[in-house]
Amino acid sequence: FAASAAADNELSFSVLLLYLIPFFICLQPFNWHQPGMSHSKRKLLQSLMGPYGPLSVSYNGKTCILFKAKRLAIRYRNHTFIDLTERVFNPNSPVDTKGSICTKEKATLSLRFGDVEDLRGLVIRLQMSNTFYEAAGQNWFTLDSVHIHYNWTQEATFNASEVYAPATSSYHCQHVSSLHKYDTLLVPSSHTDTSANWHITFTDFQIQAFNVQSDKFASASDCATFLTPAILMGLVTSLILLLVLAYALHMVVHLKHIDRYEEHKATVYFPRSPEAELPDKNSLEATKELP
């Protein structure tokens, strides 16, 4: 009975606290806040807002480019990376894409940011083309180059390598970057100009520049190749193991064949000739001389 009474008291106290908490909150000063509360709210707000949807670019009243990235960052020399993701995809303050152009064979995605930190008039442009290849029997779109315009007159250009997909598909890659650790799909056009001083990285990159239907990405052609270094080393190792195993099996079969040959050789019967069966003349004469 004492135990049940204690449990009832504890339950009543818990219910009382639930009723009193709003009252204490109302009595607190207007500017009172717990340490770290605003930071946690900001993180929660960011998590609710992101990830952002794709950026849609229209030309002559028709959607012609879809672009999406989990992160877009640039860096000049040894400075810290500048994250431009929210400036591009935030629907409340969309980036200026008025400089974008779309035709049947060419497309330009222009992202005009304006002044960003120490950079004046920052603009990033992606140049793409749509080409028919007779060998493939279809059109393919390619990302030809990426341009960074800054301080009104300066420009850094990166040539894109192996960034392509069928024109009826979108292109996706986990990293499209000028950094070596990400396979360097963006290569500075020249080491003599300012391009070598810049780095740009698109994370979880997806783009479609032609044949956009219903404002949605088509099925993605991924950049992940089959013969990556890890897979290639695995194939070479497997081939070596198969060769060793085949040689071992060959030796085992060969040894068994030798053993069978030796056993067969030991049990072979050679019949004696009639001459060998006749008694020796000397032995006959010796037997005759015996009394």
Write out key terms for the chains shown:
transmembrane helix, elongated, 291 residues, single chain, disordered N terminus, seven-stranded antiparallel beta sheet, membrane, seven-stranded mixed beta sheet, alpha+beta, ATPase activator activity, Porin, ATPase H+ transporting accessory protein 1 like b
Please give a structural write-up.
With 291 residues, this protein is an alpha+beta fold. The protein is built from six helices and 14 strands. It has helices spanning 2-27, 37-49, 85-89, 229-266, 274-277, 281-289, and strands spanning 55-59, 62-68, 71-76, 82-83, 101-102, 106-116, 119-133, 138-150, 154-160, 164-166, 170-177, 186-188, 198-208, 220-222. The chain is elongated, with a radius of gyration of 41 Å. Residues 62-210 form the V-type proton ATPase subunit S1 luminal domain. Residues 225-262 form the V-type proton ATPase subunit S1/VOA1 transmembrane domain.
SSE arrangement:
Layout: H1 2-27, H2 37-49, E1 55-59, E2 62-68, E3 71-76, E4 82-83, H3 85-89, E5 101-102, E6 106-116, E7 119-133, E8 138-150, E9 154-160, E10 164-166, E11 170-177, E12 186-188, E13 198-208, E14 220-222, H4 229-266, H5 274-277, H6 281-289
Parallel strand pairs: 11-14
Antiparallel strand pairs: 1-2, 2-13, 3-4, 3-13, 5-6, 6-7, 7-8, 8-9, 8-10, 9-12, 11-13
